[in-house]
Amino acid sequence: MEKENKLRPPYASSGVADAVLDLFRRIVPKKIDTKFIVENNIATQNNAFTATDLVKWLGITDNDGNVKEEVMSKLRLVGEEREKYIRGLVESSYKDLFSKVHVSEAKKDDVVNYFVHNHKFGTAQAKYAAALFLHLCHKYNIVVSEELKKKTHTGSSEIKNREKKNSLKKSKKEEGNQENNSNKDIGDNKYIVSIYGENTSFKFPINNVSDFEDMEAILKIIKKKLS
Questions:
Q1: What is the DSSP letter of 148?
Q2: Pair 19, 56: CB distance under 8 Å
Q3: Which of 5, 147, 155, 180 has the fewest CB neighbours in a 10 Å radius?
Q4: Spatial distance between the Cα atoms of 182 and 156, rounded to a whole number of angstroms
């Protein structure tokens, strides 16, 4: 097959695969390259190639990463019609595998060995390629054996890593905002002492020792109420 000579089977994580196929619901990309993948938080720089390999393999883009408009328009469909179309992409792109491995009766090792024998993959790459293939079969209702229905994928580690990274960014941003707000309160004063209580709120600017007098007076009143 011409595809076999030019392209290598993809071995993206299931999370990356789902993110790539779902992005057409919200944007209309003209080109999908590694830069696009990283900027849209689909995969890290080191793993971005797994996403571009996938869209090339499925025939969504050409070898230069240009998106095929007729394919993109179908990926914007919803419901069963969309699933049926993607199922067709999977069946077409993995046509050689389907012809050599009877997936309705096969074991996981049969699929892994297909990638080893036919694409010269190492064991680790072959396992990831098999896992992605089985994920696509499961998600788009392609009949496979009971053995192949068992969970075989490592999961969406890319998505989890992105969420963790975004969470850290959000926390740092919130800390920065709190610090900025604190600086606004201080203004030209050296210190601000705030006291909050029931129906009570006081802020005391402290620039020198004498500024403590007003604060001490308020503290005596609070102490008396608590006694």
A1: G
A2: no
A3: 5
A4: 39
What is the reported pLDDT for 180?
Answer: 54
Element (H, E) at 193: strand 191-197
Give the integer Cα–Cα distance in Å for 3 and 175: 51
What does the alpha-carbon distance between residue 3 and residue 59 come to, in Å, rounded to a whole number?
10
With beta carbons less than 8 A apart as the criterion, state whether 193 and 215 touch: yes
> Are the beta carbons of 51 and 162 closer than 8 angstroms?
no
Whole-number pLDDT of residue 18: 95
Say which residue the tokens 């090792």 belong to: 109
Mean pLDDT by 10 residues, the chain (227 residues): 66 95 92 96 94 97 95 94 97 97 95 96 96 96 90 46 55 56 50 62 60 62 65
Token representation of residue 30: 């003209």
State the pLDDT at residue 103.
Answer: 95
What CA–CA distances, in Å, run from 23 to 17, 19, 41, 186, 188? 10, 6, 11, 46, 49
pLDDT at residue 86 in the model:
97
* pLDDT for the residue numbered 11: 95
pTM of the complete model: 0.65
Q: Write the burial class of residue 221 (CB in 10 Å: 0-12 exposed, 13-18 middle, 19+ buried).
A: exposed
What is the full DSSP assignment across 52-102?
HHHHHHTTSB-TT-BBPHHHHHHHT--HHHHHHHHHHHHHHHTHHHHHHS-
Residue with tokens 């994920």, as numbered in its chain: 135
